Amino acid sequence: MSAANSPSAPAPPRAPASVRVSAPGKINVSLLVGPPRPDGYHGVASVYLAVSLFEEVHATATDTDGVTVTVQSDGALHVPVAGIPLGPDNLAARAAQALAAHTGHPAAVHLHIIKRVPVAGGMGGGSADAAAALVACNALWNTGLSNEELAGIAAGLGADVPFSLLGGAAVGLGVGDRLAPALSETPLHWVLAASDSGLSTPAVYGALDALRAEQQIQVPEPEAADPSILAAVRSGNARDLAAVMSNDLQDAALALAPELAGLLRAGERLGALAGMVSGSGPTIAFLTADTDAAAELETALRAEGHRALAVLGPVPGARLLPAVAG
Ligand SMILES: C[C@@](CO)(OP(=O)(O)O)[C@H](O)COP(=O)(O)OP(=O)(O)OC[C@H]1O[C@@H](n2ccc(N)nc2=O)[C@H](O)[C@@H]1O
Ligand SMILES: Nc1ncnc2c1ncn2[C@@H]1O[C@H](COP(=O)(O)OP(=O)(O)O)[C@@H](O)[C@H]1O
């Protein structure tokens, strides 16, 4: 009897045929943006918060080389998915290809994305799909990369991708990819209000540069997050955070989508402690005092015809989900 057939020999690790991974969307409770850099990016000091609105990526091994993608809309925000690229430009497909290139594993996989985060919404939904695809393919292909190695690949896919892997609350410096976890002892309760159309991230950064040039505003390179923001995130004191949260991209997003000003006013009139544009927008994140206040605001915004959803954060980053029985 050969060693491989011996009853006492350990079975070699078998890759699963299919895995499921969830990864969260994010809001930036503070976003300081520096001047444009020669490479087209901006230095930032971002305080990220992962919130309980999760993308899911189901990865299934295929016999033929290549990455295929399908997308399905799910969840209370009824996210339109028609415009999402399904070819090699899809961020999840790019992530799978990048992992295959890094490890030498054939890129033979089908990725099914269950989309709950608004597309081009300023909540890093595509980044979450990329983070989920990295974790999924690493498990599916048994490639065994560490979280640090996955984070290195993530940074090459987009500024927000490393945060979706990490989750929780974190400060992001550089282009947002140099992460340091932030403490958060008590969850914060938010209501998200989605918009019907998306905003392009580069267009919003460009609009900020134009506004600053017009107003002759010069800003330094951001080097750290505001300590008062970190203290409020740490304590989970929503009133303290409402007083200090801010987003340098907000005026630029409002210049490109002026209707958002009315939505911000509506949320504050209906009981939010404060509202802000999430990242480059157009999703608005309203901060509320507690879970009951969030539920009431969600109901009130829906009654006025908005697509609203109560969420909380921080929540964990990209995670393998248990296999479905059967
Ligand atoms: C604004 C933020 C805030 O977290 O998020 P979103 O609103 O997009 O979710 C991020 O900075 C977006 O990150 P992400 O969407 O991953 O950006 P990338 O794909 O890497 O870059 C897209 C483009 O955005 C601009 N960009 C992005 C990040 C950054 N620090 N400076 C920039 O100027 C550049 O024009 C870049 O070519
Ligand atoms: N898996 C994906 N999900 C969403 N958008 C994607 C995806 N892959 C590529 N994209 C492209 O990236 C753009 C921005 O995506 P998204 O991450 O949703 O927004 P944001 O950068 O505002 O957080 C979309 O307009 C879309 O064309």
Automatic annotation (TrEMBL):
Residues holding ATP? 118-128
Q: Which SUPFAM superfamilies match?
A: GHMP Kinase, C-terminal domain, Ribosomal protein S5 domain 2-like
GO terms for biological process, alphabetical: isopentenyl diphosphate biosynthetic process, methylerythritol 4-phosphate pathway; terpenoid biosynthetic process
TM segment ranges: none
Known catalytic reactions: 4-CDP-2-C-methyl-D-erythritol + ATP = 4-CDP-2-C-methyl-D-erythritol 2-phosphate + ADP + H(+)
Q: Which residues form the active site?
A: 26, 160
Q: Which GO terms describe its molecular function?
A: 4-(cytidine 5'-diphospho)-2-C-methyl-D-erythritol kinase activity; ATP binding
The GHMP kinase N-terminal domain extends over 90-168
Q: In which pathway does it act?
A: Isoprenoid biosynthesis; isopentenyl diphosphate biosynthesis via DXP pathway; isopentenyl diphosphate from 1-deoxy-D-xylulose 5-phosphate: step 3/6
The UniProt entry, under Pfam families, shows: GHMP_kinases_C, GHMP_kinases_N
Indicate whether Chaperone appears among the record's keywords.
no
Any signal peptide, and if so, which residues?
none
Keywords, ordered alphabetically: ATP-binding, Isoprene biosynthesis, Kinase, Nucleotide-binding, Transferase
- Record EC number: 2.7.1.148
Q: Please give the superkingdom of this protein's source.
A: Bacteria
The question of whether Ribonucleoprotein is a record keyword is answered with no
Domain GHMP kinase C-terminal residue range list: 230-305
Q: Identify its protein family.
A: Belongs to the GHMP kinase family. IspE subfamily.
As for what it does, the entry says:
Catalyzes the phosphorylation of the position 2 hydroxy group of 4-diphosphocytidyl-2C-methyl-D-erythritol.
Q: Return the HAMAP family for the record.
A: IspE (MF_00061)
What is the protein name for this chain?
Answer: 4-diphosphocytidyl-2-C-methyl-D-erythritol kinase
Q: Which organism is it from?
A: Arthrobacter jiangjiafuii
Q: Which gene encodes it?
A: ispE
